[in-house]
Amino acid sequence: MERTFIAVKPDGVQRGLCGDIMKRFEQRGFRLVAAKFIQASEEHMKNHYLDLKDMPFYGGLCKYMSSGPVFAMVWEGQSIVKLARMMMGETNPADSKPGSIRGDLCVNIGRNIIHGSDTLENAQREIGLWFKAEEFVSYTPCAQAFLYE
Ligand code: DAT
Ligand code: MG
C-alpha cells in the first residue's frame, strides 16, 4: 500500500470544491488516513515547494498557498501516487482532460485547486512535513475485501 499527500489549495477551498475532490478519492476506493483544515505559513509553503525555489513563480506560489486555508489529506491505496496524479490531470488545467479534477473544475495554472505528490519519495517527504504520527488513524474500511483481491 502507498500513501500520498493531497491538498485542496486556497482557491479550491474558497470555491467550495473540497467535497467534490474528497468524493472522487472515496469513490475510487482510496482510504483517508489523516486530514486537517489549516492555514499554512509562507515558511511552511517555501519548504513544501523547495524543489521549485529557482522558478520565477515560486514567491507568488508560496504567498498564495499561505493566503487562506487548505484542506490537507493523506490518502492510501494501491499505486495511489500515480493514480492520484492521473485523477488530478496536468499541472496546467488547459492541458487537463475532461474527467480529471483540474480538467473539470479549473482553468488557470496558478489557480489549479489541488496539490498531489508526484513521486513516492516526495509523498513521504510531504506527509512528514504536514502531519505528525499521532494525527493518523487506523481502521479497516468495510469495503476493503471488495476493493482488493
Ligand atoms: P503540480 O502541482 O502539478 O505538481 P508543479 O509541482 O510543477 O506542478 O508546480 C507546483 C505549482 O506551481 C502548480 O500546481 C502551479 C504552480 N505553477 C507551476 N508552473 C507554473 C507556471 N508556469 N506559472 C505559474 N504557476 C505555476
Ligand atoms: Mg508538484
TrEMBL record:
GO molecular function terms attached to this record: ATP binding; metal ion binding; nucleoside diphosphate kinase activity
Cellular component aspect of the GO annotation: cytoplasm; lamellipodium; nucleus; ruffle
Location of the active site: H115
Reactions this protein catalyses: a 2'-deoxyribonucleoside 5'-diphosphate + ATP = a 2'-deoxyribonucleoside 5'-triphosphate + ADP; a ribonucleoside 5'-diphosphate + ATP = a ribonucleoside 5'-triphosphate + ADP
Domain of life: Eukaryota
Ranges of residues in domain Nucleoside diphosphate kinase-like: 1-138
E.C. code: 2.7.4.6
InterPro entries named in the record: NDK-like_dom (IPR034907), NDK-like_dom_sf (IPR036850), Nucleoside_diP_kinase (IPR001564)
Record bears the keyword Chloroplast: no
Top EC class for this record: transferase
Binding site for ATP: K9, F57, R85, T91, R102, N112
Cellular localization per UniProt: Cell projection, Lamellipodium; Cell projection, Ruffle; Cytoplasm; Nucleus
UniProt KW Kinase keyword: yes
GO biological process: CTP biosynthetic process; GTP biosynthetic process; UTP biosynthetic process
Main location: other
SUPFAM superfamilies in UniProt: Nucleoside diphosphate kinase, NDK (SSF54919)
Keywords on record: ATP-binding, Cell cycle, Cell projection, Cytoplasm, Kinase, Magnesium, Metal-binding, Nucleotide-binding, Nucleus, Phosphoprotein, Transferase
Pfam families in UniProt: NDK
Cofactor: Mg(2+)
Function: Major role in the synthesis of nucleoside triphosphates other than ATP.
Family, per entry: Belongs to the NDK family.
Matching NCBIfam families: PRK00668.1 (NF001908)
Name of the protein: Nucleoside diphosphate kinase B
Species annotation: Cyclopterus lumpus (Lumpsucker)
Lineage of producing organism: Eukaryota, Metazoa, Chordata, Craniata, Vertebrata
